[in-house]
Structures are given as C-alpha cells and as structure tokens.
C-alpha cells in the first residue's frame, strides 16, 4: 500500500518534467534571418546562403562583444534548402534555426530556371519556413546581394529588411511580396515580387519613379536599391516592371494597399515644367468584366484624390478654375497613357495580368470547372480594357497664393 501511495504521488510530478528533455537555450541556437538561393554550376543543385544573426550586436550586451560582426554569412551547395540547413550544422557552432527567417532572396538567374518553383514549394514542408516570409528577387546572385548589403542606419540586418518592406506603403514602388501570395497566384496569374540590386546602372529619366532597381541616380548612401518588381508566371520569372509600372499595377487592383504617393505631372501652362502632387486612393477601384462578349470587356474605374504640393512655374492654379480644369485634364491624360502602355505590355509581352482581375472574372461563372475551362489569362491577351480615372483636386498645398515673378498666369 505504501508503494502504491508513493507511485500516485510521484507519477504526476513525472508528467510535469517530461517536457524538459529537449530544452535548448537561446544562445545555443543560430537564428537565420535571411536565406539566399542561387542556381548552382552543378546540375539540379542550388547554392543556399544563410545569414545568421549575432544576437549580441545591436543589443544591450554589445559591450561584451564589441568587435563581433552583426551576422555570419555562409553558402552551402545542396539539393534543397533543408539539406543545406543540415550541412550548415556541421560548420556553425550553434544549431541552425529557420523559425525567425523574415526574408528570402532569389537570384534572378535562379528565378528564371525551370526548377525554381519546385525548390520553393518543397521548402515549406519544414514547419520553420513560414508563408509570411518576404520574397525578394535580386538582379545579381543572392549570395552577392547579401554580402554587399551593408546598411549604414541599421546595425541588425533583420531590421533593415523589415523597414524596407514597409516602404511600399509610402511609395508603391514595390509590391506586397511574400510566399503566401506567391503560392496563391503562381498558377496562371502573374505574381509581382520585390526587385532589388546592389549593382549600378544609373539613368536619368524625366519621370522620377520610372526606374528599375539599380537605375536610380545615386551618389552616396546604402548600396541596395529596391524599386520595381520581378514578374513571375507559372513559377518562373519572365520580366521586370519599373517602379512606376508597379505602382500603376497596384492602382488597377480592386483593393490596393498603397494609399498615398508623390508623383509629378507636366505643367499644362508652362512647357518644360512639372508639378508635384500627392495622389491618394482612399476608395476601392471598381472592376467590371463582361465574359459573354468575344473578346471579353473589362471596365475599371479608379477614384483618385490629388493634393498639389509644388508649382515651380508659379502659375496660379489655386484660384483660377480654368487653370484647374487644364491641370485636372493633364493628370488624367498622363495616367491614362501610362496605364494603356502597361496593359499592352502585360497582354503582348507577358500574356497574363497582374491586377488580380481573375477574382472578378471568376465571379461570372457558377463553378470552378467552368472558369478553368474559360481560361481567363488566355482570354485576357485580347481583352478590350477601358480604364477611367475619376480625379478630384482637394487642395493646392498652400495657405497663400503663389508669389508672382512676372511670368504668365
């Protein structure tokens, strides 16, 4: 009886302790914050780059490790990401952990390969690979991109990628790009991924946002530029959009996450001058698709509100209604020309649309089988698309009329 009582006393205690056998201290783990994937010189192999963060750098414990780098970078050649992870454990003193990965860098050459999608899809079988990981396509190899990226403002690498990925909210130069959205749109529809590079191919253009990564004229500062988007279709990269084209693609979506951005337009009253304005989309775009006609018809209405910020020509637009009508017409004409060029590019060059219009087209069918049989992306190539911008000028960004200097009104 005493032994039975002792058993019932000790058994509950043993249940509490059974979960401690595989415990691991934080300092025993090496947390990877960035993964880079490149096409290897070996057939059916990839080069996987891990950037392992040093938790002591950038924290209160920096005094104990004043000369340590913020991260350790190593590249492993393997058949997939998970195999590379195991091989990395034979090099790094700490156990490699992928649960904190926030960014995955894809080299452009690998993104254009036939087995890119299979490698990415197979990696998500590991529970440590989360679908909210940000996807970035780099013009150069991912290994070179990661090694060249040394931000002057951010000591801890994961903060840099987190802050940069949030900039799409302010500019719309890059799309929302994560693994979850990639898998949702990888079949048929075009997926836009963030495009970046540390290389330079500087160009000057009149439109301040019509650049691809690497083309922005830059003299100093961080080496990496993130502007524009890599276009992926059926799990393979097929082209690149500029920052301007990316932003316009987001405007044409029914639900856009980019609410306000700064743009410049030609001054209709003074040739050679441009007017700066803040453009806002506070309401959803209206998309209507008629699949009963041949070719299908697409009608898009985009409501925009404009706040004029700068008028270098000093022409009075604030109180002159006739000038305001001219400016409103010029803004609408400028946007419609850019949108028309973008739509033709997606129809002829890409053969599919990145505007998520397939969701609206799908509502026109009773079953998914009917929609799949219709083949919306193929029909889109010849679709008749009409886009109308509803422009409202809210303000002219000044409390006083612009000061005159003797030039026209």
TrEMBL record:
<protein>
    <submittedName>
        <fullName>Ger(X)C family spore germination protein</fullName>
    </submittedName>
</protein>
<feature type="domain" description="Spore germination protein N-terminal">
    <location>
        <begin position="22"/>
        <end position="186"/>
    </location>
</feature>
<dbReference type="InterPro" id="IPR046953">
    <property type="entry name" value="Spore_GerAC-like_C"/>
</dbReference>
<keyword id="KW-0309">Germination</keyword>
<dbReference type="Pfam" id="PF05504">
    <property type="entry name" value="Spore_GerAC"/>
</dbReference>
<dbReference type="InterPro" id="IPR008844">
    <property type="entry name" value="Spore_GerAC-like"/>
</dbReference>
<keyword id="KW-0564">Palmitate</keyword>
<keyword id="KW-0732">Signal</keyword>
<dbReference type="Pfam" id="PF25198">
    <property type="entry name" value="Spore_GerAC_N"/>
</dbReference>
<keyword id="KW-0472">Membrane</keyword>
<comment type="similarity">
    <text>Belongs to the GerABKC lipoprotein family.</text>
</comment>
<feature type="domain" description="Spore germination GerAC-like C-terminal">
    <location>
        <begin position="228"/>
        <end position="397"/>
    </location>
</feature>
<dbReference type="InterPro" id="IPR057336">
    <property type="entry name" value="GerAC_N"/>
</dbReference>
<keyword id="KW-0449">Lipoprotein</keyword>
<dbReference type="InterPro" id="IPR038501">
    <property type="entry name" value="Spore_GerAC_C_sf"/>
</dbReference>
């Amino acid at each position: 009886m005493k032994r039975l009582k002792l058993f019932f006393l000790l058994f509950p205690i043993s249940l509490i302790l059974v979960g401690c056998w595989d415990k691991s201290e934080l300092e025993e783990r090496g947390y990877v914050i960035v993964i880079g994937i490149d096409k290897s010189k070996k057939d059916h192999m990839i080069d996987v780059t891990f950037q392992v963060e040093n938790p002591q750098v950038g924290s209160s414990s920096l005094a104990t490790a004043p000369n340590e780098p913020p991260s350790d970078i190593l590249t492993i050649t393997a058949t997939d990401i998970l195999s590379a992870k195991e091989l990395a454990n034979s090099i790094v003193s700490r156990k490699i952990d992928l649960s904190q990965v926030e960014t995955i860098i894809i080299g452009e050459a690998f993104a254009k390969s036939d087995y890119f999608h299979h490698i990415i899809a197979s990696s998500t079988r590991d529970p440590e690979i989360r679908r909210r990981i940000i996807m970035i396509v780099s013009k150069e190899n991912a290994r070179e991109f990661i090694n060249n990226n040394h931000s002057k403002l951010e000591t801890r690498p994961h903060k840099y990628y987190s802050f940069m990925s949030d900039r799409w909210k302010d500019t719309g130069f890059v799309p929302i790009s994560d693994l979850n959205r990639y898998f949702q749109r990888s079949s048929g529809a075009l997926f836009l991924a963030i495009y970046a590079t540390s290389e330079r191919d500087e160009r000057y253009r009149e439109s301040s946002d019509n650049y691809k990564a690497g083309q922005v004229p830059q003299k100093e500062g961080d080496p990496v530029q993130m502007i524009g988007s890599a276009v992926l279709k059926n799990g393979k990269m097929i082209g690149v959009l500029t920052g301007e084209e990316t932003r316009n693609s987001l405007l044409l979506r029914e639900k856009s996450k980019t609410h306000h951005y700064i743009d410049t337009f030609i001054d209709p009253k003074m040739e050679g001058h441009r007017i700066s304005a803040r453009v806002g989309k506070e309401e959803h775009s209206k998309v209507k698709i008629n699949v009963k006609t041949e070719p299908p018809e697409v009608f898009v209405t985009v409501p925009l509100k404009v706040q004029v910020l700068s008028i270098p020509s000093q022409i009075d637009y604030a109180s002159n209604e006739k000038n305001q009508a001219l400016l409103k017409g010029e803004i609408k004409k400028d946007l419609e020309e850019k949108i028309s060029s973008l739509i033709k590019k997606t129809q002829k060059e890409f053969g599919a649309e990145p505007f998520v219009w397939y969701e609206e087209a799908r509502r026109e069918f009773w079953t998914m089988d009917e929609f799949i049989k219709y083949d919306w992306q193929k029909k889109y190539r010849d679709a008749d698309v009409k886009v109308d911008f509803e422009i409202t000028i809210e303000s002219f960004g000044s409390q006083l009329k612009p000061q005159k200097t003797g030039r026209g009104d």
